Amino acid sequence: MGRSPCCCHDASVKKGPWTEEEDKALVEYIQKRGGNVGSWRGLPKAAGLNRCGKSCRLRWTNYLRPDIKRGNFSDEEERLIISLHAGLGNKWSTIATHLEGRTDNEIKNYWNTHIRKKLMRMGVDPVTHQQLPPDQTSHHLNGTAAALLPEALHWAAAAASLGSLDTGALMQALLLQQLLQVIGSNNDTTGLINNLAAAKAMQNSSGGIVPNILLQDQINYLQPGYLCNTPNFPEQHVMQQKMTNDTSPGMSSFTAAEMADQLCNTAASFASHDVAPAGDWSPAREFAGLLEPMMDLPDLCSLESDSFWKDILDDSYRL
DNA sequence: AATTTCCGCAACCGCAAATTA
DNA sequence: CTAATTTGCGGTTGCGGAAAT
């Protein structure tokens, strides 16, 4: 048993950056064979390259392949990566299958250089997607925002626990988490906390994902009957499309996404005063008051590029 | 203007899974 | 079935350019 020594250990085989000539030779060889590489090990010799087969494969799959998308990642792609990573972890190749034209290496690099840092700044552990302890958080949220974050992160964790590939619920959870950071800058958040707790209970009653919690009267005013469509709620249309595209069998992530969707619908409903919940709805009214100024939220993943989010984050850094 | 430090990305490396003989 | 070989994956490194001093 054992492995034959790889040509990569041969000192005479070239390493390091590829030259234009090498690229050309590799592309021409593969194209001449109609894209059928055959054996990577035998390729270098056949193509007249002094490289190891492994190096050739990497160069082709990560750089020379004709279907590779170039340029910066869009916000939509970034959102997708974050959501998929929350459910899959560092399964870069699996994540890459969900992003057309992007390679696992590219996504991994983008994660390590951009997204990871962004999450850290937001006080979110990029490995677990859960809130970091205060002493490990790279900035200091004010007390209210800090108190709210666990609520949203609880959601993210619940969605992640499904272990499914679909991203809807996690996207919504991240949306909510960010929303909460904003709302947290307001003073009185009792209503918000009540509503979140009730929403979790709603999720519990319809899917059994999050155990325990809550008082019946809190659940009452969050029944699906009270939900309304709010097309201008951030990301709503994106989520609807994602869920429509989800054809995976079984439970799901679709269900989770739907429930998460309902929560956001609820938030939006309260905010727009379109809904009058039964019973004691003063918490909802209060919640609406907090949300109302937020209805024109800019793109939620443009945390650094967008001045709206940047100002909010800067505020929290100062505190 | 020169030097140092930081950062992003392409490429490498070792391991494990998959495939082949 | 087993060993040998190939392929794929994820972590890590190091080069080169940009930013800071």
Automatic annotation (TrEMBL):
Residues 10-64, 65-115 form the Myb-like domain. Residues 10-64, 65-119 form the HTH myb-type domain. It comes from the Eukaryota. SMART domains: SANT. GO terms for cellular component: nucleus. Keywords: DNA-binding, Nucleus, Repeat, Transcription, Transcription regulation. Its main location: nucleus. PANTHER family: F14D16.11-RELATED. This is Uncharacterized protein. It comes from Hordeum vulgare subsp. vulgare (Domesticated barley).
